[in-house]
Prior knowledge:
Elements: H1 2-19, E1 41-42, H2 47-55, E2 60-64, E3 67-69, E4 74-81, E5 94-96, E6 108-114, E7 121-122, E8 127-131, E9 137-139, E10 143-146, E11 149-154, E12 157-161, E13 165-166, E14 172-175, E15 178-183, E16 186-190, E17 195-197, E18 205-208, E19 211-213, E20 230-232, E21 238-242, E22 245-249, E23 255-256, E24 261-265, E25 268-279, E26 285-289, E27 292-300, E28 307-310, H3 316-323, E29 331-333, H4 344-348, H5 351-354, H6 365-372, E30 424-425, E31 470-471
Parallel strand pairs: 1-2, 2-8, 3-9, 5-13, 7-10, 8-11, 9-12, 10-14, 11-15, 12-16, 14-17, 15-18, 16-19, 17-20, 18-21, 19-22, 20-23, 21-24, 22-25, 23-25, 24-26, 25-27, 26-28, 27-29
Antiparallel strand pairs: 4-5, 4-6, 30-31
Amino acid sequence: MAIRSVIIAATALLGAAANAQVVGTPFGFGAATTGGGDATPAAPADTAELTEWLADDEPRVILIDKEFNFLGDVCTDCECCIPDSNTCGDAGQNAIEVGIGWCGDYPTTTCTYDNAGLDGLDVGPNKSIVGVGDAGVLRGKGLRIHGTENVIVQNIHITELNPQYIWGGDAISLDGADKVWIDHVKISLVGRQMFVTGYESSGSVTFSNNELDGTTDWSASCDGHHYWTILALGENDKVTFANNYIHTTSGRAPKVGAPSFWHVYNNYWSDNTGHAFDVEESGTNVFIEGNVFEDINSAYNGDGTGAIFAVDSDSEATCSSALGRTCIANSLTSSEYTAVADESVLSAFPADEEGDVTIMAVEEVAAYVLANAGIGKLSSSGSTSGGSSSAAAVTPTSSVPVIPTSTPLVYPTPTPPAFETHVIQPEPEASSTAVPAPAPSGAASQGSSSGSSHPPGTCKARRSHKKRARRSH
């Protein structure tokens, strides 16, 4: 009887794994992504096999049917520093000394961290990485999608990348990638960025139905909220950012710092003690519609020179006229906001490239996102995974609290924290095809885990071989 029970259980598990596949189809800019296509789904036996399968050139559907734990290679009493941002001791983030001069004159200290988080798992072309049920976990290591194309990541949880430390690791890093769909992924407890794009263009990306959970015991803003949420540095990136749940953060949600286009709709921001959008560089276009902001200190930080069109009750008509379809106003509750409606964003919108998308009425967004975003919720979101459709966008009802513009609020302008200070630095020559790192001094700078021969979080020093000084990130 015991043997029979084991056989039945094993058969059920194998059946579930065999039936596990990508659910739904991508939409938006990443609509052409097919991942591993119709390759036979298979589950790697261990971390070594997972690492090998991810990196090779074979089309694969890789099932993440359990936790893959990469922790254990510990650096004990290693060099770290105490940045000015850490005013709260063990409740803040110290920084790992990664050899680029970032720590500068900050006081030195020692720390113990896991080496696994410092470099992500390399992902080759034509891969579908699919979690089974709610069992798929990558612990201690993120994904590095660099110089490749046609990758789907769906229904997994990436967690525990040295959350105590700045430079501890990025969860998902893109650089020079194309056709990428990140869907129903949960990210928590990371030291650096939850999602980052490097300087090389990632041309067609959809980031949908994900949960970015910033809850932490080690906060750069010293308030239990994660600061390093999303950093987008890719020139000419085209990103559809839809149906995501971003909560318990304090900044960079997202920071878009290079000429690119982001269409941001039907997301739910909740509990942000700093700012959500930071649109830094001229030539950047961010189109924001049908989102919910709840308890956000500042929807936009107001310091950047990039262009934003955030739909509100006064700009709906302008938007609809320009695009030839209904635009959906955003909704704010207990959140600071100022009207931003740069019409150049609408002129720059590559709608033909994004294709048809369905934008739900804003009063439906919070409930939908809470029910569907993150791991283990594929069945609840239906076959369209947030959905591509030719249906017209739905006009919000009058009962929805849309953004007012008759008496716009003014976002606060506090002195920037130490870890957000920009430093102009000359760029060194690249020593390899990997992303080279600048050497900022003193003030903390930010970036992406670009290039295996350089530390995570470092910026690439050259863009299209142009030698010039630029802001370090």
